[in-house]
Amino acid sequence: MPLVNNCQIEFLNTVTGDISIKLFNITGSELIFKNFHLKDGENKISFYLDDYFIPQGIYLMHITDDKNGKAEIVKAVKLQ
C-alpha cells in the first residue's frame, strides 16, 4: 500500500463495530495507534501521516477487528 501524506482505507463491513489500526516501523516500534468506528456498509477512514512525523520508508500496518479479534497485516510504503 503506497502512502504519501494521508492514509486512506476503504472497508465494506457487514456489521457495525470498531477497528484499531497500528503502524509499526521495520524494527517493530509502534508509531501510530488509532481507533475507528465502522458502520454497516461502505466505510472510508483516513488520517494524516504528517501529524506523526513519519519519514519515508517501509512500515507494517496492523488492522484489528475489535469485536472478533481478527487481524490483517499490510505492508505500507511511505513515499516522500
Descriptive notes:
With 80 residues, the chain is mostly beta strands. It has a single domain (2-78), classed as Immunoglobulin-like, CATH 2.60.40. Helices cover 0% and strands 66% of the residues. The chain has strands at residues 2-3, 6-13, 17-25, 30-38, 41-48, 57-65, 71-78. It has a five-stranded mixed β-sheet, with no helix packed on it. It has a two-stranded antiparallel ribbon with strand order 2-5. A hairpin with a 4-residue loop joins strand 3 (17-25) and strand 4. The radius of gyration is 13 Å and the shape is globular. The model has no long low-confidence stretch (mean pLDDT 89).
Short description:
With 80 residues, this protein is mostly beta strands. It is 0% helix and 66% strand.
Low-confidence segments? none
Q: What is the CATH T-level topology?
A: Immunoglobulin-like
**What is the C-alpha radius of gyration, as a whole number of Å?**
13 Å
What kind of sheet is the major sheet? 5 strands, mixed
Shape annotation: globular
Percent strand equals over 45%
For the secondary structure, the number of strands is 7
Overall number of structural domains: 1
* Spatial strand order of the main sheet: 1-7-6-3-4
Mean pLDDT: 89
In the CATH classification, which architecture applies?
A: Sandwich
Q: Helix fraction?
A: under 10%
Distance between the termini: 14 Å
